[in-house]
Design brief:
The structure holds two protein chains of two kinds. By secondary structure, chain A is mainly beta. In chain A, about 0% of the residues lie in helices and about 55% in strands. Chain A starts with a strand and ends with a strand. The chains are: A mainly beta, B mainly beta.
C-alpha cells in the first residue's frame, strides 16, 4: 500500500526566509503533484512532476522530484505572508487516483 | 473557462438519510474523481470515472457510490448517513484518463451529518 509522508507537518517561518517541505513516498512512481489549500477552500494545483529529476518553478516556489529516492521537495524562497496555506503532495499510482500526504501547514510571520 | 462545479456547496443531513452530490467537470474533461477530506483522515480517494466507467475505487464501504453520465457530469451518493460521513467532498476532473494531466479540484460540498 502506497504511503505518502510529508514533513514538517507545521512550519512557522519569518518573511524573507527560505525553507523546504519534504514529501517521501513508499512505492515507485514518477507522477507527483503539489497542491495548495487555503482555509475553507479547495485545492489549487501548483505543480505536476512527471519524471525523475523534474524541476518546476513558479514565483517563490520550486518543486523537484527524485524518483529513485522516492522524494519530492517544495522549496520556498524569501517567504511572504501570502504563501501562508496548507500544502499537500500527492502521488498518482493508478491513473488519476491520488494518494495524499497529511499536508504541511505553513504560517509566514511578518 | 469555467472550473469544476460542485453542488450543493453546503448541506446538513440527519443520520440514516441519504445524500447525492453533483459535479460538473471542466468542459472537455472526461475523467472525474471524488475525494473525502476530514480533519482526522485527511484527503482520501473515493472513486474515479472515465467515459462513464468506474476505473478505480478507494477503501470506502458500499454506502458510497457514484456514477458518470455521458456528458461527463458525475454524481456521488452516500446512503444511510453516519456522523463520521461529515466531511468536505471534493470532485476533481482531468482531461484524459491517463496519468500526468493536471487534476483540477472543485470548491467542494460541505456535508454535515447530525
Amino acid at each position: 500500500e502506497l504511503k505518502v509522508e510529508q514533513n514538517p507537518l507545521f512550519l512557522s517561518m519569518q518573511e524573507g526566509k527560505n525553507y523546504t517541505i519534504y514529501c517521501n513516498y513508499s512505492t515507485t512512481s514518477d507522477r507527483l503533484y503539489w497542491y495548495r489549500q487555503d482555509p475553507g477552500k479547495s485545492l489549487e494545483s501548483l505543480f505536476v512532476l512527471l519524471s525523475n529529476g523534474a524541476v518546476k518553478q513558479e514565483g517563490r516556489l520550486m518543486a523537484s522530484l527524485d524518483t529513485k529516492a522516492r522524494l519530492s521537495t517544495l522549496h520556498i524562497t524569501a517567504a511572504v505572508h501570502d504563501l501562508s496555506a496548507t500544502y499537500f503532495c500527492a502521488v498518482d499510482m493508478e491513473g488519476n487516483k491520488l494518494v495524499f500526504g497529511a499536508g504541511t501547514i505553513l504560517r509566514v510571520k511578518s | 473557462k469555467a472550473g469544476v462545479t460542485q453542488t450543493p456547496r453546503y448541506l446538513i443531513k440527519t443520520r440514516g438519510q441519504q445524500v447525492t452530490l453533483s459535479c460538473s467537470p471542466i468542459s472537455g474533461h472526461r475523467s472525474v474523481s471524488w475525494y473525502q477530506q476530514t480533519p482526522g483522515q485527511g484527503l482520501q480517494f473515493l472513486f474515479e470515472y472515465f467515459s462513464e466507467t468506474q476505473r478505480n475505487k478507494g477503501n470506502f464501504p458500499g454506502r458510497f457510490s457514484g456514477r458518470q453520465f455521458s456528458n461527463s457530469r458525475s454524481e456521488m451518493n452516500v446512503s444511510t448517513l453516519e456522523l463520521g460521513d461529515s466531511a468536505l467532498y471534493l470532485c476533481a476532473s482531468s482531461l484524459r484518463g491517463s496519468s500526468g494531466n493536471t487534476i483540477y479540484f472543485g470548491e467542494g460540498s460541505w456535508l454535515t451529518v447530525v
